[in-house]
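Example (one chain per record):
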Amino acid sequence: MQGTNLLGEGPPSEVITLNVLAPEGAPVIPDQSIPRAFTDTPYTYQLEADGGSITSYRAEGLPAGLEINPATGVVSGTPELEGEFEVTFQASNTIGIGNPTTLAMSVWTAEAPTVPSKKSSTFLGQWHAHQIGATSGTPILSYRIEDLPTGFN
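Predicted structure:
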């Protein structure tokens, strides 16, 4: 800290740290797990916030291709690049602006699933089951099998 008067400037005497806190009743964005996003795949996430009627939201550090709707807190868009991101969110209400909250967000590259080729045999007239598995960085949404012999489904 340093003082100044009509005679000049005094020597610095000490450092003061000032922490500005949000007013009581301002919104709070709680710690939350943001679902993983995938490149080139449409994404939507509703940010959670506590503190009455939220009047606006903002975000800094969102991955390219994503944005936050300032009126609703919905993060949406189509992420362009894979990576780990630290995103800082804030919400406001009629009392004031809440303290910033930084949350982790992951964007993975979308991949088509790989189904390993496995052969299976059975005998005519006997019940048969075969487990099919697939791997992918993207969740498997459905399976489709074509050209099954008569009687299989």
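Caption: The mean pLDDT is 85.
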